């Protein structure tokens, strides 16, 4: 699971730099950087704030952070087939630009 990468990717899609987004979330830019680089795990309250500011439901944010390492070996092939399409549809649905 790469939650930091999912957050960073959506933030960038929205055209926000780290400073702007950190201010929206009422956290420091340094803390946001640590979250995006998976060096810190934010608490649930911070995750809810981040998902709200990204205009992305938290369960969808979690889904976007799943990678093949999170899937049982017997289901990896199916995941690798459907995940790109599903993630693309989700990104299109929630895109604001």
From TrEMBL:
Keyword DNA-binding: yes
CDD domains: HTH_XRE
GO terms, molecular function: DNA binding; DNA-binding transcription factor activity
UniProt keyword list: DNA-binding
The protein's name in its UniProt record: HTH cro/C1-type domain-containing protein
Residue intervals passing through the bilayer: none
HTH cro/C1-type domain: residues covered: 7-61
Cellular component aspect of the GO annotation: cytosol
The organism of origin for this protein: Kordia antarctica
SUPFAM superfamilies named among the record's database cross-references: lambda repressor-like DNA-binding domains (SSF47413)
Source organism phylogeny: Bacteria, Pseudomonadati, Bacteroidota, Flavobacteriia, Flavobacteriales
Presence of the UniProt keyword DNA-binding in the record: yes
């Amino acid at each position: 699971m790469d939650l930091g990468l999912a957050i960073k990717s959506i933030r960038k899609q929205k055209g926000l730099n780290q400073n702007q987004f950190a201010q929206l979330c009422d956290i420091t830019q340094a803390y946001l950087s640590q979250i995006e680089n998976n060096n810190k795990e934010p608490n649930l309250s911070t995750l809810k704030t981040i998902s709200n500011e990204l205009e992305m439901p938290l369960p969808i944010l979690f889904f976007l952070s799943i990678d093949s390492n999170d899937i049982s070996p017997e289901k990896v092939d199916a995941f690798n087939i459907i995940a790109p399409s599903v993630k693309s549809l989700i990104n299109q649905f929630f895109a604001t630009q």
